[in-house]
Amino acid sequence: MQFATTLPGIDGSRIGLLGYSLGAYLSLRLRTHAKAIVAFFPAWMDGIGEGTTPGLPVSIHYGDQDPLKFESNTGPIAQDLRKHGAVVTVHRYPGANHGFGGSDPQNVKASTESKARTIQFFDGAS
Fold first, then answer.
1. Could you read off the pLDDT of 30-78 as tens digits, one per residue?
2. Extents of the domains making up the chain
């Protein structure tokens, strides 16, 4: 993370992180280096680590039919983030699974809506 901020053309004060599943977990662990985070299907594991995040905007997305049961992770993650001052928005997609994979209407809708929300979220955080 620190190295990325030194690359040409990178403004280290405008780092946004986006992660899926384990990548979402890692993004949350690195939150002290980010201006905004979007986390899809974040894992809880051993918590998300220590960190002060006053005002950090975080957007969490998950499908309620995920066989990995990421819905149960969302509450503890959001609670921990809020405890440290983050501003958390949780998006639950009814009928959608892990990765919003599939051509069924619920996953197509979840994929489309989550993409639009993510773009809007990062636009608002810039």
1. 998 899 999 999 988 888 888 877 999 999 999 999 988 877 888 899 9
2. 14-125
Pick the CATH number of 14-125 from 3.40.50.1820, 3.20.70.20, 2.40.30.170, 1.20.120.350: 3.40.50.1820
Note the Cα 15 to chain centre separation in Å: 14
Amino acid identity for residue 74 in this structure: T
Q: The tokens of 108 are what?
A: 């197509």
Query: Rounded distance, CA 104 to CA 22, Å?
Result: 25
CA proximity to 116, closest of 82, 91, 81, 98 = 91
Q: How many CA atoms lie within 13 A of 34 on its CB side?
A: 24
Instruction: Give the whole-angstrom CA distance, residue 78 versus residue 92.
Output: 13
